[in-house]
Every structure is written in structure tokens, then in C-alpha cells.
């Protein structure tokens, strides 16, 4: 690289946004609108897929819609591997996230067009590729604003995480209202406008706020490597296109078979990724020890996101089909709650609680819980968030749940999310081998990809098990992993080699 990490960090104005580097402010704004576009679209996506064609939907089965929603989420995070590699080796983080923003905006525009399945598939492709370029790299730029020893980094990631949830909070209300009063495509258009605002803000303010951070690849390809990868990528694309054409023409390519492929990738990719980094000659012995410490944290992250991400498919459908939304029948209020509004519960509690959690970590100082303990707490609350749904099923004969049970479930999961998610981003930056700085963030996002890839199969168990048994099964697994991670706390901490 032309510049060291120290030089890049020092090029940034280190105050200007609530005691944090000035660049955190522009990244906060960009992430807010990018997340507005994503969560606005996602709030109505599963309904759009299984709603009747006469109502403007695609007419899919509910189970298929839930599985596709999981596959979509998984692929968004899987392409983060490619985005991280391109940033590290070719483009740099800043250009990668800008190109990603353009593709995401184009994807939302495609979804706003009333052309059925073709527009839906085109939109999915553009948003998946664009998110892969943008998502890991904007987080990597956030991490690049701080020295690795800067105690503000954890708090900075919590503040950045608030932007995600502020966008996610506003989006379902606005997009859901537009969909209800007009149609699905007007709702998707609002998501496209949100992404355009993010892109415009980044182009205008990035140079003066971000300095040298992320401008160049951290481990650029040499001439020999460029020729090698050009051949590999070209060959891979030709083979992929040939496989898609053959399987489509023979009838093998269906949503069902594709979901199995995505699930297999979700399991294999992290294994390949860890092995590649661990065996690299550019990774030192200390960095290898830290990678070993990262393995149980990764597994805990997968379990947590498996539960959290089901809020957008399993719980989303549950809210519409099995929850009493007519408040007149519960409390005497003449109002029917739109099912899409439940997607704002999670970000609402995060925006409400994030400042307190951030302040708590800073206040505790040397008594701050270790990273594995924070991850364990995340698993505990996630597991309980599903197990709590057993109570109304076992104590009430009503066919429809009181919506407050869903609110409580989301609330418990949020507490776990604030323990685990910002800590995961921060520790990924801290434990990253120098040669894989951007790709380590991609690996962290792969916890979500693997979780949703597995969810593509797990959600198919809802119908045979029933919701009560399903919630108990998934919640129970999370509690078991919570106990295991508690026992591994000292080992993980020791392997982190002085990183906390």
C-alpha cells in the first residue's frame, strides 16, 4: 500500500461527530438511507411473493416465499466475500461501496416496475451484487477511522449500528403505508429513492470526511496475479452460465433445488474461508491464534442470526396469519395494525437501547465483559426470544396471539443483538490478519449468510412441526450453544492474544 494504516487514520478529522471522527457522520447518513431502502423493500417482500396475483403479488406458496426470502438474504451476505476480496485486491473499500450503491439503486428501480417474475429476479440479482460490494466495505471504512487501540471503536460501531436501525425503523412505516394505499411497486420505488439519497450524500462529502481511508486496496494484485485471476474468473463465469442454461432447459433449476445449493454454500464457504486465511503465508502465528479464537464466535453468530433473521419471514408471516391485528377486539381501539409494521419493532428497540448499551460498555471500562461473554449473552437472549412464544401457546386457547407477545419476542432478541452484533463487527476488525483486513469483515457478514442459507431449509419445518414446536426447537438449540460458549470463555480469550 502507498500509505500505512497509521497515515490513513491520521488523515481523518478525529472529532466532529459526537466525539468521534467526522467521517463517521457521513457514513452514518449513507448507511441510514441504504438500510431504509433495504428494510423498506424487505418489509413487504414476503407478502409480495405470496400475495395473490390479482392483488399485485406473485402468487407463490407461503413456505416457498419464506425460503426465498432466506436465500435472498443469504446471497446478499455471501457476495460480501467477493466485495471484500475486490476491495482488498483491486478497488479499495471506497470505490467498492460506491459501485455497490449504484447497483442497489438500480435493483430497487427494477423492483418498482410491474413486470412480475422477470423484474423480481433482475432486482434480486442487482441488489445481491450491489450489497456484496457495499455492505462489508462501508463497515471496513468505519473501522479504518480508528487506531486499533482506540477505545472509542466499540462505541463507534454501536453508533454506526444505530444508523442501520433508524433507517430500518422508518422504512416499514413509509413503504408499508405506500403499499397499502397504492400498490407494492410504489412502495419499492420509495426504497429506490432512499438509495439515491445515500449515493448522492456519499459522492458530495466522502473526500473531505474520510481522508485516505479505504482509497486503495490493502493487498493489491501483482501483474502475475492479475493474469491468473482474469483466466479463473472468465472460466468460472462461462461454466456458471452453461450450468444455469442446462439446468433451466432440463427443468432441474427450481427454487427448491437452488435453495439446497445455497444452503450447501452457506456451510462450505466459511470452512473454505477460514482454511484459506489460516494457511496463508501472509498470516503470522499470532494472527493464526486469533483466527482460532474467531471460530466459536463465528458459530455463535450463525445461531444468533438464524433466529434474528426469521423476524423477516417466519415471524412476518406469523404476524399476518396468526396474530390478532384488530385492536378493537383486544383493547376497544378501532384500528387494524398493518402486519408490515412489526418489522419496525426490532429497529425501534435498537434505536431506543443502543445509546445505553454503548454508554454501558464505555462506563464499565476494565470491567467490560469479554467478547465471548457478550456473544454468549446474545445467544441467551435470542434463544429466550423464541422460547417465550411457547407461553401463549400453552396457556391460551385463542387461535390468534396477542401482538404483545411478538413485541416481547422482538425486544428480547434486540438485547441479544446489541450484545453481539456491534461487538462482532468490532472484534472482526481487531482480530483481522493484516493481509485480509476487508475480507475479515466479509467473514463476519458471512455469519448472517450462513444463518439465512440454513434458514432456507429450517423454515420448511414450520409446517410439519407447527409454530409451537418450531419455536421450542430453535430456541433450545440457542440455549445449548450459550452454555457451551460460557465454558469456552477462557480459552477464546487466551487465543485472542491480548485483544479484548
UniProtKB/TrEMBL annotation:
Topology relative to the membrane: Multi-pass membrane protein
Keywords, alphabetical: Cell membrane, Membrane, Transmembrane, Transmembrane helix, Transport
GO cellular component labels: plasma membrane
Lipoprotein found in the keyword field: no
Top-rank taxon: Bacteria
Cellular compartment(s): Cell membrane; Membrane
GO MF term (any one): dipeptide transmembrane transporter activity
Record Gene3D superfamilies: MFS general substrate transporter like domains
Primary localization: membrane
Domain Major facilitator superfamily (MFS) profile, chain residue ranges per copy: 26-493
Designated name of the protein: Peptide MFS transporter
Organism for this UniProt entry: Macrococcus hajekii
Amino acid at each position: 500500500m502507498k500509505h500505512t494504516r497509521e497515515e490513513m487514520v491520521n488523515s481523518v478529522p478525529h472529532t466532529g461527530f459526537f466525539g468521534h471522527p467526522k467521517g463517521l457522520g457521513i457514513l452514518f447518513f449513507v448507511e441510514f438511507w441504504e438500510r431504509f431502502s433495504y428494510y423498506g423493500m424487505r418489509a413487504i417482500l414476503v407478502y409480495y411473493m405470496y400475495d395473490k396475483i390479482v392483488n399485485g403479488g406473485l402468487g407463490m406458496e407461503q413456505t416457498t416465499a419464506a425460503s426465498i426470502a432466506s436465500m435472498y438474504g443469504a446471497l446478499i451476505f455471501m457476495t460480501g466475500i467477493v466485495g471484500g476480496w475486490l476491495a482488498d485486491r483491486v478497488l479499495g473499500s471506497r470505490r467498492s461501496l460506491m459501485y455497490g450503491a449504484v447497483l442497489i439503486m438500480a435493483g430497487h428501480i427494477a423492483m418498482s416496475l410491474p413486470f412480475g417474475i422477470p423484474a423480481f429476479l433482475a432486482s434480486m440479482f442487482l441488489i445481491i451484487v450491489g450489497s456484496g460490494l457495499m455492505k462489508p466495505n462501508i463497515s471496513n471504512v468505519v473501522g479504518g477511522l480508528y487506531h486499533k487501540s482506540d477505545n472509542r471503536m466499540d462505541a463507534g460501531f454501536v453508533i454506526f449500528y444505530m444508523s442501520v436501525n433508524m433507517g430500518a425503523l422508518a422504512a416499514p412505516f413509509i413503504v408499508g403505508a405506500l403499499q397499502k394505499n397504492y400498490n407494492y411497486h410504489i412502495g419499492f420505488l420509495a426504497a429506490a429513492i432512499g438509495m439515491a439519497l445515500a449515493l448522492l450524500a456519499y459522492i458530495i462529502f466522502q473526500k473531505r470526511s474520510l481522508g485516505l481511508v479505504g482509497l486503495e486496496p490493502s493487498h493489491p494484485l501483482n501483474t502475475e496475479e492479475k493474469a491468473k485471476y482474469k483466466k479463473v474468473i472468465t472460466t468460472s463465469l462461462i461454466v456458471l452460465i452453461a450450468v444455469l442454461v442446462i439446468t433451466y432447459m432440463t427443468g432441474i433449476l427450481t427454487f427448491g433445488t437452488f435453495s439446497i445449493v445455497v444452503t450447501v454454500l452457506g456451510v462450505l464457504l466459511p470452512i473454505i474461508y477460514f482454511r484459506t486465511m489460516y494457511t496463508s503465508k501472509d498470516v503470522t502465528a499470532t494472527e493464526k491464534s486469533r483466527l482460532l479464537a474467531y471460530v466459536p464466535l463465528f458459530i455463535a453468530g450463525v445461531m444468533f442470526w438464524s433466529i434474528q433473521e426469521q423476524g423477516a419471514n417466519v415471524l412476518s408471516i406469523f404476524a399476518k396469519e396468526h396474530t390478532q391485528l384488530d385492536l378493537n377486539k383486544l383493547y376497544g381501539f378501532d384500528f387494524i395494525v398493518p402486519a408490515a409494521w412489526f418489522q419496525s419493532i426490532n429497529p425501534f428497540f435498537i434505536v431506543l437501547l443502543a445509546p445505553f448499551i454503548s454508554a454501558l460498555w464505555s462506563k464499565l471500562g476494565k470491567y467490560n465483559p469479554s467478547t465471548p461473554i457478550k456473544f454468549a449473552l446474545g445467544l441467551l437472549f435470542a434463544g429466550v426470544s423464541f422460547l417465550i412464544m411457547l407461553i401463549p401457546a400453552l396457556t391460551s386457547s385463542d387461535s390468534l396471539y396477542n401482538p404483545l407477545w411478538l413485541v416481547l419476542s422482538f425486544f428480547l432478541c434486540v438485547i441479544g443483538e446489541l450484545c453481539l452484533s456491534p461487538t462482532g463487527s468490532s472484534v472482526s476488525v481487531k482480530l483481522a490478519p493484516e493481509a485480509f483486513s476487508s475480507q475479515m469483515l466479509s467473514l463476519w457478514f458471512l455469519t448472517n449468510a450462513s444463518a439465512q442459507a440454513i434458514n432456507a431449509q429450517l423454515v420448511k419445518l414450520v409446517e410439519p412441526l407447527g409454530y409451537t414446536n418450531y419455536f421450542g426447537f430453535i430456541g433450545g438449540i440457542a440455549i445449548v450453544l450459550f452454555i457451551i460458549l460460557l465454558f469456552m470463555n477462557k480459552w477464546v480469550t487466551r487465543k485472542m492474544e491480548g485483544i479484548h
